[in-house]
Amino acid sequence: MGCESCGKNNGSHSPGCQNNGGCSTGSCNKLNVYNWLTDMVLPEDYKPFNIVEVRFKGSKKLFFRNTENLELFTGDKVIVESDYGYDLGEISLSGELVKLQLKKYGVDEDSDEMRKVLRIADEKELKKYQDFKDKEPKTLERARTIAMKMNLQMKISDIEFQGDGKKVTFYYTSEGRVDFRELIKRYASEFRARIEMRQVSYREEASRLGGIGSCGRELCCSTWLTDYKVVTMSAAKTQNLSINMLKLSGQCGRLKCCLNYELELYSEALEDFPSEDLKLKTEAGEASLRKTDILKKTLWYCYANSYDWIPIKLDRVNEIIAQNKQGKTPATLSDSAQGSEILNKTMEYRDDLLEETDLNRMDHKHKKKRPNKKRNFKGKKGGSRPGDPKQQGDPKQQGGAKKRKGNSNRKPQQNRNQDNPKSENKGPNPNKKRRPNKRKGPRNPNNKKED
Question: What DSSP letter does each residue of 368-423 carry, written as one string?
Answer without folding.
Answer: PPPP------BTBTT---TT-TTTTT-HHHHTTPPPPTT-TTPPPP--HHHH-TT-
